[in-house]
Amino acid sequence: MAGHGGGAPIIIKRVQGGGEAGHHGGAWKVAYADFVTAMMAFFLLMWLLNATTEKQRQGLADYFNPTIVQSPASGSDGPFGGEVQDSDTNTGQGAGASRDTLMAQAREGQQSGFEEMARSVQNQLTGSGAESMQKVNLLRHVVTRMTDEGLVIELTDLMDEPLFVGDSAQPTPAMKELAEVLSGVLGRVKNEIALAGHVRAYPEMLIQSPVWALSDARAHALRNLLDGSGFDGTRIQRVTAYADRRNRSVNPMDPNNNRIEVILLR
């Protein structure tokens, strides 16, 4: 017994618990999971930005940011002690925004529909496959363009082939044939039309310039031709005379300034 009294003490360490004692816990796993989730969301966002149109992105933004805010309808737990909280302002703003969005979408749809219809009319008038206007001489008189008001169809004089006889409002055979073509093509759509007469300038030495009367008479001559060809005259919204105030050519006396505009209104 005495021989063991001076020996070093024997220490036995007993570890309680599971096998995680050698690690620093599971916090790093939570942080890593958050990082992976954030990266997934980031790449998903990048994919959406690349794979969607501007209109679709606006729709997604509107979905995640609603404009209508609803407040509690009633109850004594509310700040007004049982009174109904006035939410007219928020609801009105949200409803107004929704109406504006719907109206904008409706206008966009109408414009898209009109432009598609106008392209069809243009193709029928000036396209190479037009059945009603196959003569190259007639095609030379027709110029079309899109404006805010609608599709403008210009019937223009040419140096070698005017649309009216001399300085009168008597239509030439070319004008009569153009009116027949217009009546057939415009008769396939329902939009209203407007007519506008333009003439070249005349020398200032004339005591009485005919520009106003002549441009008006020629516009009405086309209206009469359309009426006679079976076109629905109630669709003609207005007939306007511009005299020599809106010339196409730099030279105010250029015969190309003699023209009738047929506007297919939006």
From TrEMBL:
Enumerate the residue ranges of region (Disordered): 72-97
Gene Ontology terms: cellular component: membrane
Keywords, A to Z, come to: Membrane, Transmembrane, Transmembrane helix
Q: Where is the Motility protein B-like N-terminal domain?
A: 18-66
Q: What is this protein called?
A: Chemotaxis protein MotB
Entry keyword annotation includes Transmembrane helix: yes
Which Pfam family, giving just one, matches this sequence? MotB_plug
